[in-house]
Amino acid sequence: MRIKATDVATQLRFSDVLWDTDGESLLWREERSDRGVLVCELLKDASPIELTGELSVRARVGYGGGDFTVSHGSVYFVVEGRLLRQALFDVSAKPITPEWGQCTSPTVSPDGKYLLYVHSADKVDLLALVDTQGDNWPVKLGEGHDFYMQPCWHPQGTLIAWVAWDHPNMPWDGTALYLGELSSGERLPVLTTQRVLSGDPSGNTAIFQPGFSPDGRYLSYISNQSGWFNLYLLDLNSGEKEPLVREEAEHGVPAWIHGLRTYAWTADGKALYFLRLKEGFTSLVRFDLEDKRQEPIQGEAQQYTSLKQIAVSPKEDRIALIASSPTIPPCIISVSRQDKVQIHRRSSEKIPSKLYLSQPQSLSWSVETQSPITCCYGLYYPPTNPDFESAEPPPAIIKIHGGPTSQFEANYHAETQFFTSRGFAVLELNYRGSSGYGKAYTDALKANWGLLDVEDTRSAADYLVSKGLADGKRLVLMGGSAGGYTVLLCLIACPGFFKAGICRYAVSNLFTLAADTHKFEERYLDSLVGTLPQDADRYRKRSPVFSADRIQDPLAIFQGEDDRVVPKAQSDEIVESLARRGVPHLYRVFEGEGHGWRKSETIQSYYETLETFLTQYVVNSADS
Fold it and tell me: 92, 94, 104, 418: least buried by Cβ within 10 Å?
């Protein structure tokens, strides 16, 4: 059967997976509707047990992430901004930080005594430390930068490393890798020295995911100084640093959220496993330090083309991951040294028939432009339904990702499969400015947001039609947040060319976005558009709200009532223009939702409404 709205709404969402220090307990976080739940499985038992009861585990610094960690038989997690400690399989959790601000990215010292984490309150971020029993008031370790991320411990417990950066940079623009030394304090350890080891805070080089080798000799990290996020090794004794693998592929990702991991050390320190992302497809690779040789993991793991949150067992080379492919819904897996895969949890026990699941084709095409980057990329999914055949090109949905520094990857997109099983082709567009294709490709959007993304959307549509992959009279645009912004600009720039548009919490006014958005992105527009007030004319020209009266094509707009990234007022202004001029439109505001849908009932309603909208204005339209 084709995918139903209820299937999408009830699917679990996984955000992280970790091993306890005993190597016998595997924990992961899954989202059930709007609740974050921690689940544990003992390998000798293989019966997942829910740990956190009615509590909802979720860190809320920036876009979230860094929700929990586990060590020495206890799990540490964030609920309503506070860090809690709970022994595995215990029934109660104890708060170990006060009710003030927000915590994220907890990491336990090697001896199990202390918890290092990132704290944010009143727009001030810092590194903090508390004892794991919560007997003492937390202490500040590092402060003075706008943002902190990915703190980690040296095996001896006397050194820590972290990433920090300041406005107007984003974490993929320019960050610094810090090494700090701890010494005994009156109540808790204090930071006595700190120094920058790598990176470029001015905006030319970004650092991602520092980590110490098990013997403490090396500090590993990912840097994009070569133009690609590649894995580096720093010898703490000699100070020498070298890239382990230098290639035109991504070993890291933009740090939109806390707690991201794309590589991990083996327990014996003789090798690292890393994730290689190239043209939207991810593979698992082992790098042997002695032989300086990389070895792609073969066998069952190769069926997964999207791999995230890598974690290696501290007892053996067994790797846990969140894995999926375009035809395999997300699941928690582990891979043995013999390349055998064990599935620990599926996002849904109802696995869709592959007869209704589309396999993507990686596309690239040339664009006429003054930009030095002249190629554009996307993943094309043909309509897939054995009950439907047509000799004519299909209607097509061009999906535009958010960010805009983001990327569509070859993972399981229930939304895409929802449409392809209904006779639509889908192009997941990775326009210039997307991540995953090197730093130069990402940087192409600097000062050009609202220009190149619009050019590339139109060129994508023309390319699909020229190749017979889409019906030129039934082209639909779809995007959320920054993607919704591009949808609006395309409808303004090309009235009558697209059949309809679909927007979720779309940016419509760059002035109010710069003024109202959250701390993480409040200076993002400096690089994407320009600085205020000097570039006010550019902000006005590229804000859809000031040209909304040019939109004439049917438009569906969806908005979260509690969105603090793109407040509801931005959608209201567009809807006012559509209503005043009698342009066909649909406007749905979901109560209790923010920048994205979490509740199952919201997700089901969203897809059911979308299907009705597309049936009316695209499938059954009189001029289709």
Answer: 92
Residue range 58-259, CATH number:
2.130.10.120
- pLDDT higher than 90, residue 145: yes
CA atoms within 13 A on the CB side of 384: 21
**Cis before 151? omega within 30:** no
More confident residue, 213 or 389: 213
Q: Among residues 323, 213, 311, 318, which one has the least CA distance to residue 262? A: 311
With pLDDT > 90 as the criterion, what percentage of the chain qualifies? 85
Going by pLDDT thresholds of 50, 70 and 90, the confidence category of residue 377 is very high
Query: Residue 404, preceding bond cis, omega within 30 degrees?
Result: yes
What is the rounded distance in angstroms from the CA atom of residue 502 to the CA atom of residue 618? 12
110's torsion region: left (phi>0), alpha (psi -120 to 50) or beta? alpha
Q: What is the pLDDT of residues 524-540, one digit of tens each?
A: 999 999 999 999 999 99
What is the rounded distance in angstroms from the CA atom of residue 32 to the CA atom of residue 14?
9
pLDDT recorded at residue 593: 92
- 505 vs 564: CA distance, rounded Å: 10
Q: Are 348 and 329 in contact (CB under 8 A)?
A: yes
Give, to the nearest 10 degrees, the angle between helix 482-493 and helix 452-466: 70
Cα 28 to chain centroid distance, Å, stands at 17
Residues 112, 515: Cα–Cα separation, whole Å: 43
Predicted structure pTM score: 0.93
State the pLDDT confidence band at 623, using cuts at 50, 70 and 90.
low
Alpha carbon distances (Å) from 529 to 9, 359, 376, 475, 523: 36, 36, 21, 28, 10
The CATH T-level fold of domain 377-619 is Rossmann fold (3.40.50)
Angstrom distance (rounded) from CA 57 to CA 83: 10
Q: Per residue in 268-279, pLDDT tens? A: 999 999 999 999
Strand partners, 348: none
Maximum Cα–Cα distance across the chain: 77
HSE at residue 56, side-chain half, CA atoms within 13 A, is: 12
Kindly tell me the burial class for residue 43, based on how many C-beta atoms sit within 10 Å of its own C-beta (0-12, 13-18, 19 or more).
Answer: middle
The structure tokens listed for 134 are 């919560």
pLDDT > 80? residue 143: yes
What is the overall mean pLDDT for the chain? 94
Residue pointed to by tokens 């700190």: 194
SS3 per residue for 270-292: CEEEEEEEECCEEEEEEEECCCC
Segments making up each domain of the chain, as ranges: 58-259, 377-619
User: Hey, how many other C-beta atoms are within 10 angstroms of the C-beta on 303?
Assistant: 11
